[in-house]
Amino acid sequence: MGYFLAGKGLKTGECPEYWNVIHPDVVLNIAQSYIDAGADMIETNSFGANKFKLAHYGLEREVYNLNKTAAEISRKAAGSNHFVIGSVGSTGKLLLMEETTPAEMYAVFSEQVIALEKVVQMQF
Q: Is 82 in contact with 40 (CB distance < 8 Å)?
């Protein structure tokens, strides 16, 4: 997703997940291109949409909205016959280096996954 967003104008240092809100048509077009190419499943544009990563952009309060919007965009592209996979990446914080705690890490991932789950579910 990041590669395709860069091709559509995402600049170095810009938040890819914020494009779900400011350029939803571009994100939808990318997701739709996977379906059109024959993919059975597509990911959401939410890899770095967790509190720790989003804080880098001043968007840490937008976790729920960015993830929910990412899932809605991918669900729209996928329709009812394809799977949507919630993309969850790293936080950039290391437990080994004591930059965070297991409880805090759990809370950060839970917040992201709960937002994705609201939309990603699919009925067959």
A: yes
**Percent composition of the chain: helix, strand, coil (DSSP 3-state, to 5):** 55, 5, 40
pLDDT (average), residues 38-46: 97
Question: Which pLDDT score is estimated for 122?
Answer: 55
Q: Are 2 and 47 in contact (CB under 8 A)?
A: yes
pTM of the model: 0.91
Domain range 2-120, CATH architecture: Alpha-Beta Barrel (3.20)
**What is the rounded CA–CA span in Å between residue 109 and residue 6?**
26
**Dist CA 46 CA 25 (whole Å):** 16
pLDDT for 124: 40
Give the integer Cα–Cα distance in Å for 97 and 36.
44
Domain spans in the chain, listed from the N-terminal domain onward: 2-120
Residues 6+ apart with CB under 8 A from 34: 42, 77
